[in-house]
Fold each of these.
Amino acid sequence: METALLDENPSSTDAKRRGQVVSRAQSPDEVDALESGWRQLAESLPPMAQFEWTRACLHAFATGSVPHVVAVHRGERITALAPLVKKRLRGVRRLMLAGVSDVYEPMDLLWTDRRSLDRLVTSLVRRGTPLLLERIAANSASVAAIQRAYRGRAIVLARQQATCPYITLDESWLEPELHLNSGRRSDLRRARRKAEQLGTVTTQIRAPDLSELPALLDTAFEVEAQSWKGDTGTALAHDAHRAVFYRQYAEAACVAGVLRICFLRIGDRVAAMQLAVEQGEGFWLLKVGYDSRFANCSPGLLLMRDTIRYAVEAGVKSYEFLGRAESWTRVWTETEHPYISLRVYPLGVRGLAALTADVLAAMHQRWRNRR
C-alpha cells in the first residue's frame, strides 16, 4: 500500500515550483510504504530517528494511538518527516512524537534542508491539531521552525526536560578510569578485586546473530529484573508493552548489524548487562541493569568501563547514555544534551480545549503536592 500524496496548499505556487508535496501515513501499512525514503533520510542520524524505532513504537504502543507520520517529498525523495501519532491526552486528541511518552527517549523531526522543514511544519499548522513534542533538542532547528510557523496562530510553550549525558570520545578514553577522580578510581579497583574473589571476570560485547537473539534478550531481561527495577515493577520482565518494543527494535537492529548486547560475567553468572546500538558514530545505551546480588562489586560500573573502551577502539565518536542524567552517569561525565518540550495550542476550539485541560491538570498536581 502506498501513502497518498497530498498538496495541502494547492494555491502555493512556491511549493509546486520546488516539486514539494506532503503525504500522511495513518496506518501501519502506509508507514511501511515510507521505509526506503525514511532510511535514506535518517542514514546518519541517531537510532530514535530510524524507521525501525518508530515502527517498533507503533507496534508496541498501538493502544490508544493512531499513526500520523507526515512526510515532505521532492520527486522520489523524502526531504522532511514528522514521526507522529495521534493520541488522546486529557480528553483531547493531539499529535505527539511516536513512543516518547512510552520509552522517554529524545526524538525530533527529520529534514534535509530548511525549506523542507518549513514545508513540513506549515503542513502541521494547517491541521489545526494541538501538538505535544517532548524531548526535542533545545538547539534543534525544528524548535525555531515551529515557533516561527505558529506565531500569531497558536500559543507555543517551551519547557525544559531532563538532559541526556554523553561522553565525547578520544584516545584518552582507552583508559576510562583515568577520567575518574581518585576516589572513584580506587572504588573501581576495589570492585574489580571483589569480583575476582567470586570468580573469573569476563566481558562480552556481542553483535548477535538473529538465531541467538531471543535467548540473549531473555538473559538481559532476567538480569535487569534482579535489580531495584524488579522490586519496583519497572523492569522489562514486568512491562509487557515496553518488552515488546525492545524485542522488536532489537530484532530490527540485529538485522541491520548495529545491535550490541553486553554482559559482565562473574564466574558462570551474568552480573550486569547493557543493550546498546552502535550507529551514526555513537554508542547508544538503550538499557542497563545488574544483578543486585553482586552489588558490592559494582558490576554495572565495571561493564561501563569496558564498553567505553570498546567504543573508542571501534572508532565511535560519542558514548550516549540516553535516559536522563543521574548520579551514576555523573561518575563518568557531567556533559549533557539539553532538551525541551513544545506544547502547541492552535487558536481555536481544539487548542483551547487542550490548553484548558493542561492548566487544570497542572493546578490539580500543585494542589496534591501541597497536601
Note: The chain has two domains: 5-161+339-370, 170-316.
Amino acid sequence: MRRFNHGHLFLRHTSVLGRAKTWLERRLWVQKLNNPLGVALVLLASLAVAWVMSSLSFRTGFVLYVVLVGAPLIVLCLFNVAFSIGMMLFVALMVPFVTKFVNVPIGTLLDLLILLGAVGILLRQIKERDWTFAKYPLSYMILIWLYYNAMQVLNPYAESKMAWLYTVRSVAIQQVVFFIGAYAFRNNRKAIFAVLKLIVLMCFAAALYGLKQQFFGFSAAETAWVMADPERFQLYYQWNMMRIPSFCYDPTTFGILMACFAIFCLVFMVGPVKIEHKLLWAVMLICSLWAMAYTGTRTAFALVPVGAVFYAGLILNRKVVLISGLLAVLGAGFVLKSTSSGVIFRIQSAFRPAQDDSMNLRLENQKKIQPYIQSHPIGGGLGSCGVWGKRFNPESELSKFPHDSSFVRMGVELGWIGLILYTLLHYVVLRTGLYYFIRCRDPLIKAIYAGITTWMFMLAVACYVQEAILQLPMNVIYNVFLALLVTLKNFDPAFEAREV
C-alpha cells in the first residue's frame, strides 16, 4: 500500500482537477469513507447487489446473501471471541423458531459458530500459552462430562451410532461454549455486561412475542406448522386454550425460560440499581410472568416459588423474606380458589401433584425403568430414547420409553455412572455459584451471582420433570452463565484479596 502524504492536503491547488484530487484523498485516506461519500457508495453497492439477487433464483440468491453477510461475520467471530458468543446466543434463539418453517439444517450454523470460537482460542494459545481460564473445578467437571459422553460412541449396548452423533451435540458438545466464554470474559468486563444485556433483551423480546401470540394470534405459518401434526396440536391445544411457545420450539421450554427470567428480574428489581432501572426490571418481571401463564407449563409455575424461596434464603434479607412470605400466603389462597379459567386451573394443578395424572404416570415410568438402569452401568447409549431413538432405532423398546426428565434420560442413556456424573455436575455448578457469591463484596457482582445461581438452581429442579437444559436457547444461555460464574469474581478487587 502506498504511503499517503498528508502534506498534500494543505497545498493550495488552483486547478479544478487538483482540488478534486485533494477532496477525494481526504475522504478516502483521512476519513476512511466515514462520511456522506462512504454512505453513498454503500447504498449504490447495495442497489447493485439487490438487482443481481432479484434476477437469480431463490436458492441461488439465498446462497449469495449468506455468503455476502455470513463471510464477514465468520471472520469477525474467528477474531473476536466475545462477538462469537453474542452470535451463538442470537442463533440459539432463532434456530427453534426458523426450523418450524424451513426444512434446512440451520442448527449446524450454531455448531459452526462454536467451532469458530474454539479455533479462535486455539490460534491465540499458540502465542499466549495461558490456560488459566480453564483451570477451575467446574472446568474439570465439564471436561469429565465431555469425555464420558464422547466415549459413549463405543458403548456396546448402543444400537445406533447416528443417534449418538445427533444427541452428543446438545448433551455435551455445546458445553464447549463454557470454555469459549471463560476465555472471552476472563479480563473483559465490557464483554460480560454486553452479553448479559443481550440475554436480558432476548428473553424480554421472547416474552413480548409470546404475548403477541396470545392476544393477536399466531401467524399463518405458525398455525400451519402447529396443525400439520396431530400430536403437536394436542400438545399446544389444552384446556380450551392455545399454549404459546414464542421463539422456542415448544411451550414447555418457553415457560421454563420465562420462569427463570422472572426470578432473574426479581433479583435486580430488589438489587443495587437505580429507581428507573428497578421500574424497567419490574416491567420485564410482569411481562415474563404474564407470558409464562399462557404457556400452560406446570413445571414453570412451580419453579417461580421455588426460585423465590431459594433467592430469599440466599441473601437472607428481612424485607425480601417478608415479601416472599406474603406472596406465599397469597399464592396459597390463589391455588385453593375455585375457578373456571383454563389458565388458572392449569396453574393450580401444578401445586396439586397428588391429583396430577401426568405426574403420577411419570413416577410409574421411573419405577419401571429402574431395573434397566441398575443393570446397565453405562446405559443404552446416547440417543437410545426420545426423538433420535424413534428416528434411528424405532423398533427398540427404549425408543418408546417416555423419559420426560433429564435425570431419567441420563440414567437410561448413560447408565447410573452417567447419572452420578450428571448429578455431580449440577452440584459443582451450584457450589461454584454459592462459593463466589459469599466471597464477593461488590454489590452489582454479588447480585449477578445471586441471579445466575438462582437460575441454575431452578434448572436443576426442573430437570427432574423436564429436559430443561438440553433445548435451545436454554442450552447456550446455561453454558454462557457457567462461564460468567467463574469469571465475574475477577472484577471484584476485594475478592482477590481474600481468595486463598
Note: The two ends are 53 Å apart (CA to CA).
Amino acid sequence: MAIIVQKYGGSSVADVDKLLLIAKKISEEKKSGNDVVVVVSAMGKSTDSLIDLAKSISKNPQMREMDMLLSVGERTTMSLLCMALNDLGVDSISLTGSQAGIITNDRHNDARVIEVRPFRVLDEIANNKVVVVGGFQGVSYKRDITTLGRGGSDTSAVALAAALNAERCEIYSDVDGVYSADPSLIKSAVHLPELPYEIMQEMSEAGAKVLNAQAVQFAKESNIAIYARKSFGGKKETIIRIMASGLSKGVKAIVHENQIVRISFGGSEIHKKFSDLLKYSEKRQYKIKEIYFSANELNTSNSKAGLLLSLKNILDWESSKDELRNSFDNINIEPGLGAVSLIGDGINRDSSILLSSIKLLEENKIKIFGISTTSFRISFLLTDEIVNFSAQLFHRKWIEEIS
C-alpha cells in the first residue's frame, strides 16, 4: 500500500469540531487502502498563547525552556485527534517528534532537521495504525527537545514523507493552495495550480506563509511532490514538484514581509567586527535573512558590513537591541523595515524587470533602502509602513497588467 503523509495546520485544527471533521477525512483516506501518517500543528493560536505565557514570567526566556513549553501545543492536538480517530473505529497512535525519529541540530527555536529515523512509525504502520505525529518539534543529538521555527510542521511532514518514501505529502491549511500574492492583502491574487520547487522555496524564504522553506528543500532533495490544499471545501490545489526550467518566465509572484531590522557598521577592523557580530547572532540564535560585506582596504571609511534580521522569532527585541548596542561600538540599528520581493524564473537574465521596478517605486516617491537578487528573486528593502502598498503596486504591474 502507498504511504500518504498529511499535515494539518493551526487553523485546520482550531477547535474540537474541526478536529472531528479532520478525523473523518483521515478515516476515508485510510479506508481507501492507503497507509496514512498525519502531522499536526498546535490548535489555533495556542502557540501564541504559550509565548505570551512565557513573557508573563520572563522578558527574555531561555530558548531551551521555550522549546519545552512550545512542544506542548502539538502534543495536545495529536492526542485529541487520536481519540477522535479511535472513536471512528480507526486504530491510531500519537507520537512526538522525538518518538517519530526526527533528529535535529542543537539550535533551539529554529532547529534544522538533520536526520529522520522513522523505525517506530514504520512499526506502527505495519500494525495497520494511522500514525499521528506532533509537528514543529524534534530532538537534538544532545537529547533536548527542539522546535523548528514558524511553519516547522511543514518541515516535519515533508521530512517524514522523504524518510518513509511516501507517494506524496499533502499540506492542508485555510487556503486552497499558493497564490501570486497574499490573498488577504491583494484580493486579485491569482491561484497558481503548479510550481517548481525553486520558485516555491524563494517565495517561502522571502516571507510567503503557505509553506516552510526548509520543507520545500526536503521535498526537492527527495523528489516528493507537495500538494497544498484547503482543509475544508476547497476544490483547487497547488502541486509543487519538478518542472522544466523556463516554462513560466517573468514574475510569478509578489511576496512581502514585515518586521525586518538592519544591523550594520563600517570603518576599520571590519573583518573582526563582522565575525564578532555573526558569533553573537549565532549564540543568541537570531534568524538571519541576509548578510552583506564590503571591505575597502585602501579607504577603510568606505568599508561596510551588516545583516538583516527577521523579528518574528525574537521574543524580546527591545532587550536584544539594548544588548547589541552595549556589546558593539558604533553599531547602526535600523528598525521599522520590510521587504517586497518579485519571484520568477529568469527574472534577472537581464536588468529590464529590475529597472522597471525601480522606476515604479521612484514614480510613487518610495525610498529604497536596499536591493538584493538571486536567480529567481528581486527584493527591495523599504520602510515597513509602505510595504503593503508597494506589494499592491508590483502585483498590479507584473501580474495583473501582464495576465
Note: The chain has eleven helices and 20 strands.
